[in-house]
Structure formats: C-alpha cells, structure tokens
C-alpha cells in the first residue's frame, strides 16, 4: 500500500501512523484501513455498558477526506443498532456534518470513542439518528454478534478481545463518556456563538431606529432659509419629513451599508422641495439694475437726438 500513495502527503503520513497505532484490537474498539484504500477504514466498537446497547458489537465504515486531518471524516454504521441508521452518514459533532467543531488534533481513535459515548444519547432528529425503544435496541444488540462484514470479512464474535474487568476497560468507558460530553458541549457553544453573531443586537436596532444619524440631520438642513430665524418652523418641519423618509431605511437590517448610505445621500424629492421655503430674490438690487439700464437708454437717446439735429442743420447750410 505504501507504494500507491505519496508518502510526503500529510494525510498519508497521519493515516499510516494511526493504522500502526490501531493495528491490534482492544476489548472496546478496533479499526484498520482497507487493503486497497487508505482513506476508507472499517471499525468495530462494543456497545457501552449499562445501556440498551450493552453486549452488542457494532461494525461500520469511516471515509476520510484527502484533506484529513484538517477536515473531519464521515461515519457510517453497517450493523443494525436502533440508534444510527444503517448505510447512512450519521450526524455527530465529530463527523463531516459538523466541520466547524472538528479539531485536527482528533484522530480515528477519537471518533471510535465518540461513537461509543454518543450511542446512549438521544437522537433528537439529527441526520442518520434513530430512537428505537430499549427493548428493540437490546434485541438488536444480541443479534449484532451474528453480523459479518462482506467488505472486510470481519466477524463480530472475534473482532474484539474478550471483555475484561480491568482498569483499561473502565478507563476506556470513562474516556468515551467524557469525550462525548465535551464534544456535545463544544457543539452547543459554537452554535450559540454563531447565532449571537448572525443576529443583530435588539438594543442596537432600537437605537438605530430612534436616533437619526448626523448625515440625516445635515440632509434635513440642506436648504435653509436665510430670511428666517434659525428657530423657524420651516426647517423643523423639513427635518421631521426627512427623518420620516429616512428612518425606514435604518429599520431595514437586510440592506447593505452601501445602500443605506446611498439612501441617506439621495436628492430630496419634489415634495421636500416644496416643503422647504426657497430663498427670496433681493428686489433692491434688481431695481437698481433696471434704473441703470433706463438711464443708459435715455442718455443714448439724447445723444442720438443731438447728433441727428446737428446733421440736419449742416444739411440746411
């Protein structure tokens, strides 16, 4: 098998190391890769004691991605057990369904202990989970001893070492329970943090809905009346109108910041132009200009008349 894979690959190095560590079966678990595929393993686990699966021995597959151990494996049970569906990728915090909770420091041995620890837990509608009655699970536990895998040829009666009452067995049971508790807790914490990050703070939404932004205030005062006092009612009414038009944009949390800024910098509508009093034209300057024009025209007419009379007098002489 070593000649078929790139020995410099991190995944190949890691899997060969784990295969050497798990070569000898224990009384609780055993796993080895297929002879022709290093990235597909077959495993066998013993049902946890003092549970509905006590006395059962269960077989399954572990399919590992090429990016292992940076990405989690997929776990598939092949023995009927009443907790996980047969032939379907099960949803666990340590499987491919939850890459956000996977840690590269975990291994195939970690996955085996997690399966043992998760078997007595409730399915709660997770993918690949079953909620059989205790009687059905106990019946399947007894029946599991007759299972023989067609893919790897493992027989459940001889797949594991006989169960002993030594400290190693007790330690494996404790480790499986503790690992399942830690992984389950980590998954709950991560999902809580994700929901807190995705959902906006209620107080922030209320604050953005009730307090106008500086850009909104400047838009309300975009057209001041120079002939009125700063406390006149015209700017106040226009500010109120602009706030009413702009506030729905702040309440809408689905738009992007760029769209929100574009709405705040938009040109006021025609109704807003009519609501704001336009500056009045200074009539005094206009009157002066008209008077100058009239005087210029009168002077030009007088000069023209004198020139005309002078020419007429010369003509008579």
TrEMBL record:
Compositional bias ranges of the Polar residues kind: 198-218, 226-257, 267-282
Segments traversing the membrane: 286-304
MF terms in GO: ATP binding; ubiquitin conjugating enzyme activity; ubiquitin protein ligase binding
Name the record gives this protein: Ubiquitin-conjugating enzyme E2 J1
Highest taxon, organism lineage: Eukaryota
Gene name of the record: UBE2J1
Gene3D superfamilies membership: Ubiquitin Conjugating Enzyme
Location in or out of the cell: Endoplasmic reticulum membrane
This protein's record includes keyword Cytoplasm: no
GO terms under cellular component: Hrd1p ubiquitin ligase complex
Record note on quaternary structure: Component of the HRD1 complex, which comprises at least SYNV1/HRD1, DERL1/2, FAM8A1, HERPUD1/HERP, OS9, SEL1L and UBE2J1. Interacts with E3 ligase RNF26. Interacts with E3 ligase RNF133.
Predominant localisation class: endoplasmic reticulum
Species in which this protein is naturally found: Sphenodon punctatus (Tuatara)
């Amino acid at each position: 098998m070593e000649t078929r894979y790139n020995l410099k690959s991190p995944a190949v190095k890691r899997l060969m190391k784990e295969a050497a560590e798990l070569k000898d079966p224990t009384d609780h678990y055993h796993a080895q890769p297929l002879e022709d595929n290093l990235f597909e393993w077959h495993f066998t686990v013993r049902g946890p004691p003092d549970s509905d699966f006590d006395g059962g021995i269960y077989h399954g597959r572990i399919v590992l991605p090429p990016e292992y151990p940076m990405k989690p494996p997929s776990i598939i049970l092949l023995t009927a057990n009443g907790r996980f569906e047969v032939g379907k990728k099960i949803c666990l915090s340590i499987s491919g369904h939850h890459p956000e909770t996977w840690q590269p420091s975990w291994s195939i041995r970690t996955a085996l202990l997690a399966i043992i620890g998760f078997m007595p837990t409730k399915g709660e509608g997770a993918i690949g989970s079953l909620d059989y009655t205790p009687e059905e699970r106990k019946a399947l536990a007894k029946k599991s001893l007759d299972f023989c895998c067609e893919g790897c040829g493992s027989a459940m009666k001889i797949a594991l070492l006989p169960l002993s009452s030594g400290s190693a067995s007790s330690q494996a049971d404790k480790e499986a329970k503790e690992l399942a508790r830690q992984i389950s807790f980590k998954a709950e914490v991560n999902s809580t943090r994700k929901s807190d990050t995705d959902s906006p703070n209620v107080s922030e939404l209320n604050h953005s809905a009730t307090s106008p932004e500086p850009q909104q205030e400047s838009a309300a005062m975009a057209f001041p009346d120079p002939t009125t006092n700063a406390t006149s009612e015209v700017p106040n009414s226009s500010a109120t109108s602009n706030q009413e038009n702009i506030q729905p944009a702040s309440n809408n949390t689905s738009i992007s910041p760029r769209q929100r800024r574009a709405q705040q910098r938009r040109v006021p509508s025609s109704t807003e132009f009519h609501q704001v009093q336009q500056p009045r034209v200074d009539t005094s300057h206009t009157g002066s200009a008209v008077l100058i024009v009239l005087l210029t025209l009168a002077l030009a007419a007088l000069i023209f008349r004198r020139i005309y009379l002078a020419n007429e007098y010369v003509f008579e002489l």
